[in-house]
Design brief:
Largest sheet of chain B: 9 strands, mixed
CATH topology of the largest domain in chain B: TIM Barrel
CATH architecture of the largest domain in chain B: Alpha-Beta Barrel
Number of domains of chain A: 1
Number of helices of chain A: 3
Shape of chain B: globular
Helix content of chain B: 40-55%
Largest interface: A-B, 25 and 31 residues
Largest sheet of chain A: 3 strands, antiparallel
Number of strands of chain B: 16
Structural class of chain B: alpha/beta
Structural class of chain A: alpha+beta
Oligomer: heterodimer
Helix content of chain A: 40-55%
CATH superfamily of the largest domain in chain B: Aldolase class I
Radius of gyration of chain A: 20 Å
Radius of gyration of chain B: 23 Å
Number of helices of chain B: 18
Order of helices and strands of chain A: EHEEHH
Strand content of chain A: 15-25%
Number of domains of chain B: 2
Shape of chain A: elongated
Number of strands of chain A: 3
Strand order of the largest sheet of chain A: 1-3-2
């Protein structure tokens, strides 16, 4: 049986927003503590179910790493498209007659 | 070979069955091999690839910082949200809390047939009708609920008559719906339905044994079927529809439930889960139920697909709603899958107790003395009720575009926000998606529908299209 286990994350690679989103989605099965030391963050997962096995632990670690990569991609998309998304929503929902398009 | 130069547009993605589903801001999707999103983000997609052109056509990438067709894209986004244009269209009138059945899963905390002070006052009813006409919506649906509203035929008549009278000058598209268990559809009630063209929405839980057990009566099924036939004869086949609720007992009877709907000449079924309100909340292990319901839903959907493949046109309505969102550019009128949420924006409840509530579930909470979603008295002004402090507070959590866990979910445009459910199950309107059973249920069902589209497209797509178009495959 596994009590708790830790993951070290390089904050130069994955920033705080990305790590927070990953931690958020794992909070159903774990109580999670985060400790930052320079550019390394140690994330400790305490299972809510004390009967977690080593196989399950390995699966969680794999999923955690996958989630870090996925949420990093999502963050890049969100950052790069923030302005065009705002423009899209303005064009969709504001009164278009009030707009003047500049070439 | 050099990669193409392109710009990203807003999109969301999810991994499913070793593939990636990419969904744009209006709900168009493409299925791509694993690693596609990473290649898109790091500008590895080459112009000579078919994928490049698929991504362009689906507004996932653009050749210019602002796509040439952004105005068309904006119109599509506006169309997807056009359910907001008319504001509240569904107006629920809870005429009484009294009921003549004893359902094990009652979500409305119904009272005995002879209970006192559980009927709406006539003055409140008339004021409610007036409030309804303050709504700017051209389409108004007036739905009579309970308890069992047929126990108060005089109130149904007054409401229909008064609304019809006001509508002579208002000229809205007015629809009446009577939600009844059909157990005691008297000649008087049916005469009112005939006179005002009132549609009947009833409950049928499946075969006789199951239906009777759910109702706590021995003869409920027999009476309901007789009531349905009587209503069909007098009002027309298409005027009567039925809903089922998946009690814990029902989880074992997916085929039997569908068969009973077909035997009784229904062409569709809405596989509806129990909701955590009223009596149901006390009698259920919700985590276990939710996971069993998801399995039940998939099994039943498979059975319905088999039936369709044999040439019988039979629709599963929830899948049909989701498919409309995935496969068409149009919004749907189903309040549970809307963002901004259906509460207030699409539905409002005038309750027997003289108060206005944000939704059907809100008034169910009130029966447990929780008045969080009570917006005001029926005698208050329209502005105070619909735009008051309570409404403003609810509005802070009613868009999934702004909620943690929803805002970057690939199913955002197919799903909805539900502050009332969040509050009732998780203690606050904002909610916590990782532990939300509703999130888990919707994600699992939408995953399953996508799996069917991805893995068995030739087999299921003609059936799904026939459901959306309401024509035989």
């Amino acid at each position: 049986m596994v009590q708790s286990f830790s993951i070290e994350v390089n904050r130069n690679v994955y920033d705080d927003v990305v790590i927070s989103q990953v931690v958020y989605w794992h909070s159903d099965d774990f109580v999670i503590t985060r400790n930052v030391n320079d550019n390394t963050e140690t994330i400790t997962l305490h299972p809510r179910d004390i009967h977690i096995t080593n196989e399950e632990k390995e699966r969680v670690l794999q999923q955690f790493q996958q989630d870090l990569n996925d949420f990093k991609l999502r963050q890049i998309v969100a950052q790069e498209t923030k302005d065009i998304r705002t423009i899209l929503y303005i064009k969709a929902f504001a009164n278009n007659d009030d707009f003047v398009d500049y070439e | 070979m050099s990669s193409a130069s392109y710009y990203l547009l807003p999109f969301y993605f999810r991994r499913l069955n070793h593939k990636e589903i990419l969904v744009n801001e209006v709900g168009d999707y493409i299925v791509a091999p694993q690693g596609t999103v990473e290649r898109i983000v790091y500008r590895k997609i080459e112009e000579k690839e078919d994928l490049f052109h698929d991504l362009l056509a689906n507004y996932i990438i653009s050749l210019t910082p602002i796509p040439d067709l952004i105005d068309i894209y904006a119109v599509r986004l506006r169309t997807k949200k056009s359910f907001l244009d008319g504001f509240t269209a569904l107006h629920i009138f809870v005429l009484t809390l009294r009921c003549n059945q004893n359902c094990v899963y009652c979500q409305a905390s119904s009272q005995k047939e002879n209970a006192c002070y559980k009927d709406m006052q006539v003055e409140d009813l008339r004021k409610s009708v007036e409030l309804m006409f303050k709504s700017p919506s051209q389409h108004l649906t007036m739905e009579f609920q309970g308890g069992e509203p047929t126990l108060t035929p005089h109130l149904i008549r007054i409401a229909a008559e008064y609304a019809s009278q006001i509508n002579l000058t208002q000229k809205r598209e007015l629809t009446f719906v009577l939600c009844t268990n059909c157990v005691n559809l008297t000649d008087e009630v049916l005469e009112i339905c005939k006179q005002y063209n009132i549609l009947i929405s009833t409950s049928l839980d499946g075969p006789a044994t199951l239906h009777n057990r759910n109702r706590g009566k021995n003869d409920s099924y027999e009476k309901v079927i007789a009531g349905i036939e009587k209503a069909r004869t007098l009002l027309g086949m298409d005027k009567v529809s039925a809903l089922m609720t998946t009690s814990i007992e029902a989880l074992q009877y997916s085929k039997e439930i569908v068969d009973s709907y077909i035997e009784n000449n229904f062409h569709s079924i809405f596989i509806r889960a129990l909701n955590p309100y009223g009596l149901a909340v006390e009698n259920t292990n919700w985590e276990d139920y939710n996971s069993r319901f998801i399995d039940f839903y998939k099994t039943t959907l498979e059975y319905i697909l088999e039936i369709n493949k044999k040439g019988v046109f039979f629709v599963e309505e929830f899948a049909c709603l989701v498919l409309r969102k995935i496969l068409t550019p149009f919004p749907i009128g189903f309040v549970d899958l809307q963002s901004p949420a259906g509460v207030i924006n699409s539905v409002i409840v005038y309750n027997y107790d003289g108060y206005v509530y944000a939704s059907d579930e809100s008034r169910m909470l009130a029966e447990k003395q929780d008045f969080t979603f009570r917006l005001g008295k029926i005698s208050d002004t329209y502005e105070n009720i619909f735009y008051g402090e309570k409404s403003q507070k609810i509005s802070q959590t009613w868009s999934n575009e702004c909620l943690a866990g929803c805002s970057n979910c690939s199913y955002q445009s197919y799903c909805g926000a539900d502050p009332v459910r969040n509050y009732s199950t998780q203690g606050d309107m904002y909610g916590h998606r990782p532990t939300s059973l509703l999130c888990k249920k919707y994600k699992s069902i939408i995953d399953y529908i996508f799996l069917l589209l991805m893995e068995r497209e030739n087999e299921v797509l003609p059936i799904f299209k026939s459901w959306i178009n309401k024509t035989d495959a």
